[in-house]
Recover the amino acids of this structure.
């Protein structure tokens, strides 16, 4: 159901200072009365404002690009609209908000389970991550979370009626995260999250803390998905220390079909049980032992169904990009290496190796993307992250779209 209704959208040119600006008025859909103190912001940025007593708002000074304009107020359905700013743009809107009572019946409410504490621990693991930055994050309103674990599907689902407020003492950001979808399927390892973050700058205790925040933000940015998308938009992967190749997944010839493996495993289990014994010896490699052995077929079953095949040719970012429009006409897998060693926490706990290597990620692109100068891309649900980024790209390392790295030259 469409919660957004724009009555008037006007674009004006701004000559002075070349600033982008947005202003407008927010009113009740039913009465037409202005709504004071409504929250108006660009999602995933630090830009926003509250409406005045007359329902009016205005903010400016943000860089060009595409943004998700979001309007919220207690008792009303959240309104959202994508807006684009190119060069110097002045956008005027008139916005109606619908009372929330109209959409309550469409919301499926699931009760909390008795395992809330366990579910909350798992939620934080996937929401914040396990990096050193996650350790410095605190969720200020955990009881606003509703958590549900479906034992049948082994899936954790979360929702919240109020924004989840996260205070990140590592980066100096306070994030209000409007959570719309959170789902983790433990059997497949597939994790989906969708929401609208709103950033606020925290007040530093002193100049030293402020400098440390800037340093950590810079470190997070380098090699991040935001950094990669901006580099792709500018057709400058190599210049930004990304090595990118096409990747294909091909069937693993060493692994028989599931049907064949299941038949052999069941046959051998029945045979051993009829003999009055069940013995399983595991080997480090399936080739270490061959024959009609239960351990052999169990090892084969653990082999991946597909193996990765990386094309040796390194891409520059120009191959799929239309520079004028930012359209990236590519679907498939990209193998991405960034010229920095992976985090030691990732190497030890996820990759389970002592030696650290360069950060390696896989980007699965389901649909062609359109990338804007600020790093915004659409459709945001058209990509999946694997390997390093699937671990590092969490709320604890989230940066706003208006973040600009420090020029050290």
């Amino acid at each position: 159901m469409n919660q957004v209704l724009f009555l008037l959208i006007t674009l004006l040119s701004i000559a002075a200072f070349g600033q982008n600006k947005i202003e407008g008025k927010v009113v009740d859909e039913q009465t037409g009365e202005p709504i004071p103190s409504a929250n108006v912001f660009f999602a995933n940025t630090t830009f926003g404002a509250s409406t005045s007593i007359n329902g009016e708002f205005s903010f400016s000074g943000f860089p060009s690009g595409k943004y998700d304009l979001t309007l919220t107020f207690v008792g009303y359905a959240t309104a959202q609209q994508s807006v684009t700013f190119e060069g110097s743009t002045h956008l005027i809107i008139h916005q109606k908000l619908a009372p929330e009572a109209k959409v309550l019946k469409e919301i499926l409410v699931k009760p909390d389970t008795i395992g809330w504490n366990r579910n909350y621990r798992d939620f934080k693991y996937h929401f914040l991550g396990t990096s050193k930055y996650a350790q410095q994050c605190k969720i200020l309103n955990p009881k606003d979370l509703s958590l549900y674990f479906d034992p049948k599907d082994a899936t954790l689902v979360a929702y919240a009626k109020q924004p989840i407020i996260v205070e990140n003492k590592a980066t100096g950001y306070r994030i209000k995260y409007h959570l719309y979808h959170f789902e983790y399927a433990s059997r497949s390892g597939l994790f989906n999250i969708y929401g609208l973050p709103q950033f606020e700058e925290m007040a530093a205790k002193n100049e030293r803390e402020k400098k440390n925040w800037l340093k950590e933000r810079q470190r997070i940015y380098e090699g991040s998905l935001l950094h990669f998308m901006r580099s792709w938009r500018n057709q400058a992967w190599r210049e930004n220390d990304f090595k990118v190749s096409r990747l294909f997944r091909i069937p693993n010839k060493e692994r028989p079909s599931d049907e064949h493996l299941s038949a052999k495993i069941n046959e051998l289990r029945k045979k051993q049980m009829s003999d009055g014994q069940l013995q399983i010896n595991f080997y480090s490699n399936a080739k270490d032992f061959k024959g009609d052995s239960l351990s052999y077929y169990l090892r084969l079953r653990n082999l991946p169904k597909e193996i990765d095949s990386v094309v040796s040719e390194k891409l520059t970012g120009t191959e799929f990009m239309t520079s004028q429009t930012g359209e990236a006409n590519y679907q498939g897998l990209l193998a991405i290496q960034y010229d920095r060693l992976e985090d030691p926490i990732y190497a030890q706990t996820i990759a389970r190796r002592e030696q650290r290597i360069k950060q390696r990620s896989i980007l699965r692109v389901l649909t062609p993307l359109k990338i804007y100068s600020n790093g915004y891309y659409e459709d945001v649900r058209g990509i999946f992250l694997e390997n390093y980024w699937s671990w590092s790209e969490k709320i604890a390392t989230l940066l706003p779209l208006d973040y600009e790295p420090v020029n050290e030259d």
